[in-house]
Specification:
The protein has a single domain, classed as Rossmann fold, CATH 3.40.50. The chain is built from 7 helices and 7 strands; from the N terminus they run E-H-E-H-E-H-E-H-E-H-E-H-H-E. A 7-stranded parallel sheet has the order 3-2-1-4-5-6-7, with helices on both faces. Helix 3 packs parallel to helix 4.
Length: about 240
């Protein structure tokens, strides 16, 4: 029986890459999206053509809406039958120093980046019973820089949730995290933007998607690994060598 992954925020960027990567390895994939219905459907259609013996479905939910979060795993299971891997990839990423942060921005970062993964992990554990959870945090979890104060704090909380869930849910469910760094430019920027950012990290170049996908493979292949964080960030978590 084939393995099935539920990936949040799977229609674009890193989520899209993960979906394609797992499909190439024989996985069935459930593509979660919020607003990107056409992109999600296009991805499903493309994967279905490439891998006709596998199953690909979409599921919609606004991760800032708790009622929709609470129905997500059940909706995915109704389409797939079983789920072996939950990837909490979707996030919101809004800049604001602590002294400038309003309640709406704070709530959005925590609702999407912590609350949604918390209850998706809970429902995955209760309904699926065994498998893997991979949470996407951020290399910022090692820093106290506050230019993305609420976002950074939400990712710190997600990393703590990763460890807490790993301890509680073992051995049936392994829970690990990946922290990307300079990976993809914002949608309104080009590669030059990334190259400039990368001059401040030890490896002096953007990592692209490959380090993330290799980290994903390592987690899935290492059956004794749980509660761990893999930094796919070119050493950014170490600080600047100045």
């Amino acid at each position: 029986m084939s393995n099935t992954a539920l990936i949040t925020g799977a229609s674009k960027r890193i989520g899209n890459a993960i979906s394609n990567h797992l499909a190439k390895k024989g996985w069935n994939v459930i593509i979660h999206y919020n607003h990107s219905a056409s992109e999600a459907q296009k991805l499903v259609e493309g994967l279905s053509v490439q891998f006709p013996n596998q199953k690909f479905n979409t599921v919609q939910a606004n991760l800032a809406n708790i009622d929709e979060v609470l129905g997500l795993v059940k909706n995915a299971l109704s389409k797939a039958g079983s789920i072996n891997l939950l990837v909490n990839n979707a996030s919101v990423f809004d800049p604001s120093y602590l002294i400038e942060t309003d309640v709406e921005l704070y709530d959005l970062q925590f609702d999407v980046n912590v609350r949604a993964p918390f209850f998706l992990i809970r429902d995955f554990a209760n309904h699926c019973k065994k498998g893997n959870v991979i949470n996407f945090v951020d290399t910022r979890v090692t820093s106290n820089k506050s230019n993305f104060a609420a976002y950074s704090l939400s990712k710190k909380a997600l990393w703590d949730l990763t460890k807490m869930a790993a301890l509680e849910l073992s051995p049936e469910i392994r829970v690990n995290a990946i922290a990307p760094g300079v990976t993809l430019p914002p949608e309104d920027e080009d590669e030059n933007y990334l190259d400039k950012l990368a001059q401040n990290i030890p490896m002096k170049k953007p990592g692209g998607l490959e380090p993330i996908l290799k980290s994903l493979d390592y987690i899935l292949d290492n059956h004794h690994l749980t509660g761990q964080l893999l930094f796919a960030d070119g050493g950014e978590n170490l600080g600047q060598n100045v």
